[in-house]
Design brief:
The complex is a heterodimer. By secondary structure, chain A is of the alpha+beta class. Helices cover about 20% and strands about 20% of the residues of chain A. The chains are: A alpha+beta, B mainly alpha.
Chain lengths: ~100, ~325
């Protein structure tokens, strides 16, 4: 064990501020397992009633898109303005649409 | 709680020749446009290194900052003060953790940062190398040291690196309780018996100048300030922040009948600011180099806590491995 990396794995923390809202990324903690990750997340990120529910997930289990590919990934949406209601011209006297 | 730019001979910052000019240009344009840079975005190596140094120093300062105050938890004068101080010290630990996490997104590891602190390679704020001699020091630290820290940290909520900015938003929200509880201690002591008032004044006398030094060396001796401001790693210079701190703090001292220990302090009508006396920068550099009155004691307490906790960290890892193996076996048999 001596030369092995001893650091506890990293976990990402998501907190639901109150019921009705989604869990939102708050930060990360190091912990040996999920139980302790939850406890550390509570102590680190909810000292002032910031949440009613916590999710933790090992950082290494998250797959993320590469910012360098942001162009090809998100450009198709950019050119499809007809997906937005403001693309369509409706005369002023037409109501409730 | 921290000071910027603590390495005595900082390496000159600037883009490296090996980096593609079109990437550098796009990066500079984004930063100039006040966009946030996120962990996986391309960034110049010098930007990454500067941030790792600044954020990890900031984290170390929060962690070491628990020591001078932790000393007084068992000796707080009332249960109320004890509960408040416990909460404050716990917050400082939390701030250190937010910041270590932010630094880790830049590719450094927690173990490497802790090693750098314990080996003396990494610096932390000079302010924590001064001793806390009596209860009034806890008031002075909250009011002056956390007050100076807030002055430094508020503009960093808009710093260009996203994870650092987000950590700062959280820190700033929590920090103003720290300053107010400190001011309350000082206010109460200043209105107390002559002995209590003398203690408050004595603490003010000892902490005023170190608090001013927390903003770092004067702008003309801070070679990387211009680059850091351009990269939006810093939003205001050391001297600008120091002046702001003096301007807001002097009237607070006057309001509770304490004297700022600076014979040269006077309001400058034309500038619209307080003029203040010369700062002893030799003392500052001596403290940066680890010659503060209690520097050795701080690092000893810190490394001892780390080493004594090693068995807990190892046992928790062993337990997690055993549990995982058991689950795997059960899954295989089931």
């Amino acid at each position: 064990m001596a030369n092995e990396k001893k650091e506890w794995p990293l976990w990402e923390v998501f907190i639901r501020a109150k019921n009705g809202l989604s869990h939102r990324h708050a930060g990360s903690v190091h912990a040996p397992d999920a139980d302790i990750a939850l406890r550390h997340a509570r102590d680190t990120y909810t000292r002032r009633m910031e949440g009613v529910s916590i999710w933790v997930i090992r950082s290494s289990d998250i797959a993320a898109s590469d910012p360098a590919d942001a162009g090809p990934i998100f450009e198709p949406a950019e050119s499809k303005v007809y997906r937005h209601p403001t693309f369509y011209v409706v005369p002023d006297h037409i109501k409730h649409i | 709680m921290y000071t910027t730019e603590m390495s005595k001979n900082p390496t000159q910052l600037g883009p490296s020749a090996a980096e593609p000019p079109e990437l550098i240009e796009a990066f500079e344009a984004r930063v100039a446009n006040d966009e946030f840079i996120e962990p996986k975005d391309w960034m110049p190596e010098a930007y990454r290194k500067t941030l790792i140094r600044q954020i990890s120093q900031h984290a170390h300062s929060e962690i070491v900052g628990m020591l001078p105050e932790g000393n007084w938890i068992t000796r707080a004068p009332s249960l109320r003060r004890k509960a408040v101080l416990l909460a404050k010290v716990q917050d400082e630990g939390g701030h250190g953790l937010y910041l270590y996490s932010a630094a880790e997104t830049l590719g450094t590891s927690r173990d490497d940062m802790i090693d750098a602190l314990h080996s003396g390679k990494a610096k932390y704020s000079t302010i924590f190398n001064y001793p806390t001699l009596n209860w009034a020091d806890i008031g002075a630290i909250g009011w002056l040291v956390d007050g100076a820290a807030i002055m430094n940290q508020v503009p960093l909520q808009r710093t260009s690196y996203g994870p650092y900015a987000r950590a700062m938003v959280r820190v700033c929200k929590e920090e103003s309780f720290h300053q107010r509880q400190g001011f309350e201690i000082m206010m109460q002591m200043a209105a107390g018996t002559p002995e209590q008032k003398a203690m408050a004044q004595d603490a003010m006398d000892r902490w005023w100048w170190p608090a001013l030094m927390m903003f770092g060396p004067p702008d003309e001796n801070s070679p990387n300030t211009a680059q850091s401001v351009r990269w939006r790693i810093k939003r205001e210079t050391n001297d600008e922040l120091r002046q702001k701190f003096v301007d807001v703090t002097v009237p607070q001292a006057q309001a509770i009948g304490l004297t700022v220990p600076d014979p040269d302090l006077k309001w400058d009508e034309a500038r619209g600011h307080y003029d203040y006396g010369a700062i002893d920068w030799d003392e500052f550099w001596a403290v940066v180099k680890g010659e503060g009155p209690v520097a050795k004691e701080r690092m000893k307490a810190r490394t001892e806590a780390w080493e004594k906790g090693a068995w807990v960290r190892e046992a928790a890892m062993a337990h997690a491995a055993k549990q995982a193996a058991r689950r795997q076996k059960e899954a295989a048999n089931g």
